[in-house]
Structures
1.
Amino acid sequence: MADTREQYENVAAVYWPIAIGVFVLVVVLIVAFALRYRSDDHRPVEGRSRAEGLESLYALGLACVAAALAYLTFSTMAELEAGVPGGQSAAGEVAAVGPPALEVTVTAARWNWRFDYPRYGITQVGSGTRLPTLTVPTGDVRFAVTSVDVVHSFFIPEERYKRDAFPERFNRFGLRFERPGFRRGGGKCAEYCGLRHSYMNFDLRVLDRAAFERWAQAQRAAAGGAGPRA
Amino acid sequence: MTTLDAPPRRSGTLSLLGLFGSTDHKHIGLVTGLTAFAFFLLAGLLALLMRTELAEPGLQILRDDTYNQVFTMHGSTMFYLFAVPLALAVGLYLVPLQIGAAEIVWPRLALLGYWLFLSGGLIMYSGFLTADGAAKAAWTAYDPLSDSVATPEAGMDLWIIGVVLATVATMIWAACVLATLVRRRAPGMTMLRIPVFSWGMVVTCLLVLTAFPALVLAMTLLYIDRHFGGVFTDPGGPLAYQHLFWFYGHPVVYVVFFPFLGAALEAIAVCSRKRFFGYHAMVLSLLGFTALSMSVWGHHMFTTGGVANRYFALTSTALLVPAGIEYFDSLATMFRGRIVVRTSLLFALGFLGLFLIGGLTGILVGSPPLNYHLHDTYFIVAHFHYTVVGGTVFGFFAGIYHWFPKVTGRILGEGLGKINWALLMVGTLLTFIPQFFLGEEGMARRISDYPAYEGWAGLNQLSTVGAFVIFLGVLVLLINVARSLRLGRVAGDDPWGGHTLEWTTSSPPPRHNFEALPPVRSYAPLLDLREERERARAGAVALGADREELRP
C-alpha cells in the first residue's frame, strides 16, 4: 500500500515547477512584446505569418512534455493501486509482507459518518452534538466506503486523498497513517450533499499499534461485543 | 457609408416590436447578449452574497438553506443563462458580418431561441417565489441529491425546465450559426479563409450540437425520475447520471471559451497591426481541442472509482498541445508587430495570462494522484474561475471594447476602459489566488461555513475583498458604456484598421449588412487591401511617379 501523501508530494514536485516556469515565461514574453513593439506607426506590418515546420516541431515538443507527465502520473497510480483489492496491480503483495491491514467500513449518511471495524465488532458514530471520530492505528488501513442516501465523499486532507461514497456501492482503497495524534475536523465530506454538508466533518485519531489495540479492546468490552471476527 | 462626423445611423426602428420581434440577426444577437449580461449581473450579486458570508466563520447573513440556493443559482446562471447564451449571441451578431453574409440561416428559428432562453431563465428564477425557494442541488444536480426524496421542492422542477429551455435555445442558435458558416460565406471565402473568431464559432457550434443533447437527455430523465421514478434507481444510476452530465459538462467549458478566445485573438492581431500568425495551425488546434474536449469528461469523476482514470488523465494532459499552439500563435502575432495598447488589447493579454493560470492548474488536476486531494475543494473553484473569468469574461470584455464601435457607432472611453481593466485584473487575482491555498489546505467547496479552528478566515477575507473589486470593475464598464453611448467618439466604419469584413460596412451595419464586398483572398481581406495600397504607394515612390496624386 502506498503513502498517498508522499505520492501527492512527488507528483506535485514535478508538476508545480513546470507550471510556474511556463507561466512566468509566457507572462514575461507578453509584457516584453507589448513594451518592445509599441509603435505609433499606423501602417500594417508585412512579414511572415506562418511557420508550419516550426510549429510542428513545437507541437511535437509539447506532446513529449504531455507524454512525460502522463508517464509520471501513470507510474504513481500503479504504486497507489498496488495491493488494493480491485486495483489494477498485483493484489496481495502487502499481505505477504506484514500482518493483514486493519479494515474499516465507512458509511456516509446525511449528515453523519459511521465507522465499522469488522475485526473488532466495533461501531463508531457521531451524535447530534459531537463529531464522529475515526480512530486508526499507524501503518496501513484499508477502507471500504459507501453511502446510505446521496453521494458523499470521504476526504482526509492530511492524507491528500478522497474517495466518493455511493449508495449501494463500495469503493475500496488503502491509506497509510504515519504520525500518531488527534486531528480535530481532520476528515470532511467533499461532495455536496445538501442542507448540512458544511458540517459533515469527522475527527481523526491516529494511535500507535499497541494503543490502538488497547482502545479497540476497551471499545469492544464497552459494547459487550463477542470475540474478534477476523 | 457614414462619414466620420455624421451621427451613427440607426439600423431598424427602436420600437419594442423591433427589439423583441425583429428577425435581423444583429437584433437577435444584441438582445440575447444584453439579456445574458443581465443574468451575469444577477449571478454576480449572488457571488457577492456568498463571498460576504464566507468572510468569517459562522453564519452572518445567510442561512444554510439560502446559501445552498444562492451558490446553485450562481453556477446555474453563469453557465446556462450567461456564458453559453452569450457565446452564441456574439456568434449570431458577428458571424454573418465576418463572413460577408446578409443574414443568418433560419432567422425566425433564432428568434424562437431567444424566447425559449428568456422563458427558461425566468422559469429557473421563479423558484425563488415558491415556498421552499429555488433549486439547491448545485449546477450539476447530481442524482440522488436531485431526486424526489432528497430534494422534493418545486424549485428543482422549475430549474430542470429552465435548463432544458435554455439548452434547446442554445442548440437552435448553434444550428443557425453553423448553417450560416457553411452556406452563406461571401464569394471567395473558403472554409480556410474564415476569420479566426468565426472559426472559433464553427467549433463552438460543433460542440453544442454534439454534446448538449446529452444534457437535455439527462434533464429529461431526471424529470421523469422525480415524477414517475425508476430511472436512476439501479446501483449504477448515480454514476450514469454523472456520465451523462459531464459528457455535456466538459465540452460546455470549451463552448464558453472558443468564441472569446477568437475575440481576444482578433483584438491582438488588429492591435499588433499584423496578420494573425499561424492561421492554419490555429484552425487545426481548434479542431484538435474540440475532438479532445469530447473525450475528457471522466476527469470530473476521478474520485468516483467508476471511470478509467488513466484514459481520462491521458486525454486531459494531451490538451496542453492545442493550448500550447494557441499561445504560440498569439505571441508570434505580437512579435515584431506595431503594437498599439488599447483597452481591447489589455483585456486580450489579460485573457492570455489569467486563462493560463486556469489551464496550467487544469493540467495539475488532470493528474489523478493530485486530483484525489484537490477535487471538490476550493482549488477546483479557483482553477475553473480562472478559465471562465480569465477566459470567458476577459475575452468577452476584449470583444466589447473591440466591437462596441461596430455595434453602436461610438467608441468606448479609453480612460475608463483602462480603469475597468485594472480593477478586473486586480480583482480576479485577489479573489481566486487565495482559493488555491484554501483548497490545498482542504477547504471543501459548496460549504456555507467553516470552523474557526481551521484558520481560513484571512485567506477568505482577501478573496471577499477581491470579489468586491471585480464588482467595481464591472460597474466602471457600465458607466463607460452609458457615457460612451451619448458622448463617445463617433467611430466611422473602421476605427481600428480592422482585418475582417465587418469593418468594411457602416457602424452600426444596415439591415442587410453590406452594400458592397471587397474581394476575399485570405482570412484578413481588409488587411490585404491595405497592404496592396501600401505596396502601390511604395512602388510609386520608388518609380518616381506623380506624388501629387498620392498625397491625401
2.
Amino acid sequence: MKIGLVCSHGGHLTETLQILPAFEGHDLFFATYHSARDNEVRAIAQAYFTTNIGTSLWRMFLALFWSLLVLLRERPDVILSLGAEIALPFFFWSKLLGIRTIFIESWCRVENLSKTGKLVYPIADAFLVQWPQLLKVCGPKAQYQGAVI
Amino acid sequence: MILVTVGTHNQNFDRLVRAMDELAAELDEPVLIQRGSSHYLPRHAEHFEWASSQRMEQLTQQARVIVSHAAAGSILLALLHHKPLVVVPRLQRFGESIDDHQRQLSTALHEQGKAIAVDPLSKEALRLAIDTVTQQGSYIEGSTRLVQAVRRQLGLWDEAKRRVMPAREDI
C-alpha cells in the first residue's frame, strides 16, 4: 500500500519517525512543514513541504488546495497523522476521496484532546491515543495501544 | 554541559531562556540554549536559534542534563538518549502556547519519575531541579506496542484491498 505520513515539524515529526518500522514493506511519502530538518525527511521518502499553517485561516485555506494536489498526485491508500493542524485538510479530502485514515493523538496530550484530534475524531477510520487516561474523554472509537516511547 | 531547548514552536519561551541565562551566570558548568522563536538574547550562556535534528542529537549526547520545554519532540530526544531531564511547561497566559497541555504532560512525567517538572518557573527552582535530576536515572519503554498496533491495522486494510483488487499475478 502507499501511506502518506502527514505531520507538523518539531515534535510531531519526531514522534512519526519513532514508528517508521510500522510501515516496512509499504510505499511512503511525507507531507510536512519546512524546518531545519527538510533534508532528513527527504532522505526517508518523497516529501512535500509547506509553511506552518498554525492558527491562520488564510493559510489553512491555501493548504486545502495544496493537500488536494498532493493527494491527487500520490493517490495513497492510507493517510496517517500524529498531528497537528496540517492533518485537517488531508483528513477532510481523504474522507471525500475514500482514503483510509489513522490519527494518533500526540504523546504531548495527556488529559484532553488537541483541537485537531477533536475535529478528526468523527472522520478518522482509526483513532489512537498515547495515554490511557485520555480514553475517558474520547468516544468508543479511541484505542490506547502504547506510545511512541 | 547543560542543554536547554525550546523547540521549533513559533511562540517565544523567553521566561525559560531568561531564567536559564541568569542561572548560567552563577554556574561553573557551560549552558547552551536553543532559543527558537524567543526574543531574549542570552548574555551568559552560549545560544543558537535552531539546528538540524542530527545536530540536536549530537548536542543531546554531549549534554549532561537537558532542560526542555514540555513538548513531545524534545522530551523524546532526551529520554531516548537516557539523559536526565528537567521539563518546563509553556503556558497560555504568557503567550507561550495555544493552551496549557504542556502542564499536563510535565505533571504526568514528573509523577512517573521520567522527568522533573519545574512549575512555577524560577531560577532557584531550575537550580534545584537540575541538582535533583542528576541523581536520578532515565526511563525508556519503547514504541514496540504502538508500532505493532499500527502494523496490524495496515495489514488488515492491505488484505482487504488485495481481496477487492487482486494483484495482476494473482488473477
